[in-house]
Every structure is written in structure tokens, then in C-alpha cells.
Amino acid sequence: MSENGNPNLPVDRALTEGRVPDRTSAGVPELHEVDCPAELRERIEQLMSRYPDRRSASIPALWAVQERYGWCTPEGIRQAAAVMRVTPGYLESVASFYDLLHTEAVGSHRIEVCTNISCWMRGGDELLDAFRAAAEGDEDFYVTGFECLGACDIAPMASIDQRYYGPLEAAEAGIAIAQLKADAEVLPAKDQARRPLAGDTPNPGGGAGA
Ligand code: FES
Question: What pTM value is reported for the model?
């Protein structure tokens, strides 16, 4: 059996070399002390099995917590910490460092508007203002400005519920918010997933080439 106690997981060198506290260390919750759903525990164990140092799974493990609870709740972090055999404080420090991990409750619809240089030059600030105005007063929406999202070719752009859209007009912010409220498809003509990739040859139907 591995040092992890799970025969399917590799020996954790970080543990054997004393670089992380072992499971007897103060502050590391035991699994029986938390009510971790089996599905979440199995997912985190599977993530840990990908890395020689289980702490390398911290970000995807926190993402799994966020997907389950909507944000990185204190109890969700304790559950992940018990599975990973690290302190909740360690995972909290990771979660608080990354903007895409939320340590406070946020709306279920998350909109990140890029305001970095390429998007800013093409109206990113106005686009952010338009999204904020359209979503104002509705706690179901979380709208924030963001650094470059790596899609400068469609500036100004936004990530809406983890999908990229652009180039966007400020007037389309209200349309997108209304479509989200109606549970309708969001700005299909601006959905990057529908755009051809660089080098694709348009086919007669107008879509991306094979
Ligand atoms: S500057 Fe907006 S995606 Fe790069």
C-alpha cells in the first residue's frame, strides 16, 4: 500500500520527505470529521493520483469544490483538506490567490469582462459598465473586470459562464443578461466555440472546415 493509504495512489514523496505535514499533524481534519460526499472524495483522489505531490492537485480540487457548492465554502475546503491530508488553511491560501476561485458566495452566472490592453482599446471598460448596469440588483449575476483572458483576437470580449464571447458591443450586454435570465442561448453569433479556428477552411455551409 502507498503512503497515501490508498493502494491505487502513488507514494507521496512530499509526505515521505517531510515537505508537507502528515495526517497526524495538527489542523489536518480526518475524513470521519467531515461529511465529504463520495463523488467529491473520489474526484479529488483521482486528481491527486495524477501528480507525484498531492498538493499539485490543490487548484483542480478546489475547482471541484466550487463546482459542487457554487463557491469554495469553508466546509467544502475542510472536506477537500481531509481528502488531501493538508490543512484547510493551506487550501484557503490557494483559493484566495486565484481570481477564478471564490471564497465568498457569488451569483450562479459569472461574467468576466476583459479590460486588458487589447480589449480596453476596443471598449472593454464600456462593455464592463454595460454588463454591470444590466445585471445590477440581481444577486444571481457576478460581474467583474478581468485581466487578459487570452482571446485578444476577439476583443473586446467576455467570459460568460466559462464560455468566451466576442467581439462584443456594449449594447449586447443587456441582451446577454436577458438571455441568461430566460435560460436561452447566449449571443450565438458571438460564441467563440462556433468560430472557425485559425487555418480552418470555411465549408460551403459557412461553418468551420473539417
Ligand atoms: S486583452 Fe482582452 S483577451 Fe487579451
Answer: 0.76
